[in-house]
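Title: Prediction job returns without error message
Component: structure pipeline
Severity: low
Priority: P3
Assignee: unassigned

Description:
Job completed but the reporter wants confirmation the result is attached to the right record. Sequence as submitted:
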Amino acid sequence: METALAGNVCILGVGNRMRGDDGAGSWVAEGLAGRVSVPVFDGGMAPENYLEKIAALRPDTVLIVDAVDFGGSPGELRLFRAEDVGPGGLSTHALSLSLAAEYLRTRGPATVRLLAIQPADTGLGRPPSEAVCRAVERAVRMLKNILPLSAGS
């Protein structure tokens, strides 16, 4: 993971907090915001609304964090290249993530990575599973160990 986050890094969390584990990316963004000295955005269900803000920062690496059904065990973390996320591909937000990655690549030199968290339940109105709550904590802890911390952390 550390080698994948080279240069100036920006984090974009994606997720729908009203659909159980699907909120994972948003929760990771929330856990990092103000604690690391890199830009962190919670894109929620509409990450495309943050693309121009991210592109204007000219990051070397954009890490998108999202709940993704990649066939793993609930709460498993896996890092993917943006090319692995295509329409009809991995994420419940596959189309918007694919477009987001393509947009960011065309607007600057950014390498786009996806930190995927395997969900257990993404049902509407469902609470997040214990496995995904633990994975969110692990992801936040791991990223705080890799990324420079903000002055107040």
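Comment from assignee: result matches the submitted record. Strands lie at 9-13, 40-42, 61-67, 77-81, 111-117.
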